[in-house]
Amino acid sequence: MNLLVTGGAGFIGSHFVLRHIEQYPDDTIVVLDTMTYAADKTFLQPVLQRIRFIEGDIADIELVSRLVLTYGIEVIVNFAAETHVDRSIQNAVPFIHSNIIGVQGLIEVCRASPDLLLIQISTDEVYGDLASGEEPFSLNSALKPSSPYAASKASGDLLLMAAVRTYGIRVRMTRCTNNYGPHQDASKLLPVIIHNALQNKKIPIYGEGRQSRDWLYVTDHNDAVELVIQKGQDGHIYLIGAGNEHENIQVATTVLNVMGKSADLIQFVPDRPGHDWRYTLDSSSIRALGWEPKVTFEDGIRKTVDWYRHR
Known about the structure:
Elements: E1 2-6, H1 11-23, E2 28-33, E3 52-55, H2 61-70, E4 75-78, H3 85-90, H4 93-112, E5 117-123, H5 148-167, E6 170-176, E7 178-180, H6 189-198, E8 203-206, E9 212-217, H7 218-231, E10 237-240, E11 245-247, H8 248-259, E12 266-269, H9 284-287, H10 297-310
Parallel strand pairs: 1-2, 1-4, 2-3, 4-5, 5-6, 6-10, 7-9, 8-12
Antiparallel strand pairs: 9-11
Helix pairs in contact: 1-7, 2-4, 4-5, 6-8, 8-10
């Protein structure tokens, strides 16, 4: 199989590339990445001789079309996205570019190559948030994004769903819960906790830290994506959640316990605007393909802490 992995130097995309090459060594992988703040090519160093790496933008229709034709691409896996909620609140323009205009660019490429399969990596944040005790989001839940980031991802998803109906392009979509693991951007919650704890600095936690998330280890997520490529159905959406729901304060305490650090490092700070209260998903759609998470939350935290300690 010949794959184009967009955003392949980012957190989840780079893990996908490494894992896919390990599992399918005969496949051809082309990585396309704009190399913004969240990208780090060095994580791909072990496989750089086995992939084609191109620096570029998914909104560049001519470039993506040329890559598809040159390398006989059969599947595009679109990890390319601006993803940080706080950054989207400060400036939404880059999110509009990558998550909406970029997705429309991929749609145009797929229209010109009807056999091309597009895997869109989306997020549970398109649904907004849940109250405590409320049932998990399902495939029938309405899209109610709370942040500019989430709204841009929901917009891209809607463009794709419309293109499936209007143009008949081949799309399979995933929406996942909070990913964590090695190589995540330093501005995300877990890296902030770990980096600050390593330096005995205060760890900022929004509000009272009672916001709750379902935590999904990055390799478990990519195992699910592989199943969607191999066994999924065109036009379907797959929700990926590990069932590891924890409040932010619990996450911080778990990390500090693993690191042998005091909870006194935690410092509560004013909450951010529009902060979603709780996310969790009904993951029966992906489990029906035979997927289940392999990494427990505690083991995943240990793996993540070890990586940041020794990097």
